[in-house]
Automatic annotation (TrEMBL):
GO terms for biological process: D-serine catabolic process. InterPro entries: Ala_racemase_N, D-amino_acid_metab_enzyme, D-ser_dehydrat-like_dom, D-ser_dehydrat-like_sf, PLP-binding_barrel. The keyword Cytoplasm does not apply. This is D-serine deaminase-like pyridoxal phosphate-dependent protein.
Amino acid sequence: MSYLDQITSPTLLLDENICRANIKRMAEKAARHEMKLVPHFKTAQSHEIGDWAKEYGITEVTASSIKMAEYLSGEGWVNIHIAFPFNPLEIPKLNKIAEKQSISVQLINTSTTQMLVDQLENPVGFFIEIDAGYGRTGVEVTDFGLIEEILLLAKKSDKLHFKGFYLHPGHTYYMSDIPAIYEQSRNALSMLKNKYSTEYPKLVTRIGDTPGCAVMEEFGDIDEMGPGNFVFFDLMQAELGGCYKSDIAVCLAVPVVDIKKERNEILVHGGGVHLAKDVLLDEDGNKNFGEVVYLNESGWEIPDNRSHLKSISQEHGIIKASDELMAKVKVGDLLGILPVHSCMTADAMGSYLTIDGKVVDHAEGVSQS
């Protein structure tokens, strides 16, 4: 039976071959630069996709929450790192995970550090998150006083072990000069490594954004990379130059429920609860919530003439259709939508259907492969 015959409502499709190619390409890039690839699984959130990653030499993984770390633990990962300023209310959960799983957390202040010193029952590693221009979170790169306070507090515990410095230059998503951002990031991490490596000779530096990791070929002496979105990519990454649309490994299959020929518009069952509401704007200010692909037995085809979701509500989506699409579409058909932000779409949908008809697990869903 074709995978298409299984679909009656919005369904997130996964092309395993494209996904594997994306993982392989990033693993080869990390190896080429003598870096360790520690992918961020906030995008895939899947045991099975994690098993694919292990086939390409990936042994450690990153999570965005204690909940995700719980889901990933016990799956053979050498270490799981929670790349979010640690929430001290979750120390009991951390202690439970750390009984059986090597795990590390991210620290940015002395308050949380002190609570870990007081309450940890099992060994836990930590990175200090550094802010070198993004402005979202982290210790300012020149705030050596705070860095050293955190390190001194951690020394009071035989359970809390310093691993290194973590930097997420998230402004690569909205600033065009990625090379300049990466020069800033490289310089920041290199300075910190030089300053603290005598006292901590095993410390490592890690950088973690997909746009930069995908396009850059100069990483200096950074030890590790931790991108996440690269396993699927999406329209945002394509616009940033990190991938081609043909590298996008997921699309949302949506049923056509009405057609307005006089307006070249198609109503589909697929909205914000499926895709989330990330949007791209063209040069004229028109909104794009996703682009149409044509589904077939072997996956999907990117048409020459673009059609896109011009608006979405909770369950509805309205496609502004090309003449080519209008000539062939009918009510009851299935269309595919390439997402603007695959991480949010995957999180919203909670499972995947591969193009060979196999259900793949997701941390937010109940389905298992």
